[in-house]
Amino acid sequence: MQRVTGFIMVSLLVMLGVPTYLSARQGVSVPPGWIKHSFSRFIYHVCIPTNRSTIVYAATEAGSFRPSGVFVSNDSGKRFKAINRNLPERIVKGIAVMSTKRNCVYVALSEKGVYRSCNQGKTWGAKNKGLPVNIRATCLSLNPQAPRTLLLGLEGGELFRTVNGADSWTRLAPVSGDVSSIAFDPKNLHVYYVGMNGGRLYKSTDAGATWNESQVGASSDPNNAISSIVIDPITPSSLYLSMTSAGIWKSFDSGATWSEKMNGLSNPKINALVFDAKHPLTLYAGTAGSGVFALKTGARVGFSYPL
Fold first, then answer.
1. Which tens digits make up the pLDDT trace of 284-295?
2. Any idea where the domains of the chain sit in the sequence?
């Protein structure tokens, strides 16, 4: 899952099965201070092109629930409309937006591959050149430092990259497991991080030609996936990752070693992490069932509800 800028949208990403909330302010309580912007109970993905953009894209993964698919708002989330015309599937596994072209949006569909729209979803075109015919997508991420570069993760550990805005895809070296999250080093275009189920993390320093594996935490439960990887915007050698059932972990050495960072968090089920774009020392964590917490990364105190 890529970094979300502008509004603090963590709850949109993670509070599944409950109404959707949006906050445009840092330092508010949950749910007081959060404004309800609900159009579907199962929002899994949110993307905002730039810090000052009023455009918000959102997508669901639950194709059997209505409404589902891809949605856009042009008024900072007050109203959303469906933009699913000629999309062959509504189970969306990833969404990405070019910061330089706000109307260009990419989606990874569970079984139909990648589709792109450059007119804010009025029409969509398949962008699957180089991808397998039988695809099972799991996540999609765009490199904010190179906005025509995207990585697509598949079930079984397959990874594909495009450097031309999805006009064509190239297979990278595979990893083991199901890809659950992807992150890009903001200072080095050749460094990628890929999170997997079972708490496994892969790092590449050669743009995906080779990978080094590490195990984060003691749990190798295949149901425990690395749900989010974020890189400290102030200190890029510091990384945080979250797991769906094993909490939050931090690395001070670009992923070589990890330590648990749960002080103040009682719920180990973490679905999303995001740094505040305007206040980069603040890290937000979205939990499964306990709301949103904030951490001052430069302080020694633990997580707390935003105050």
1. 887 777 777 777
2. 10-296
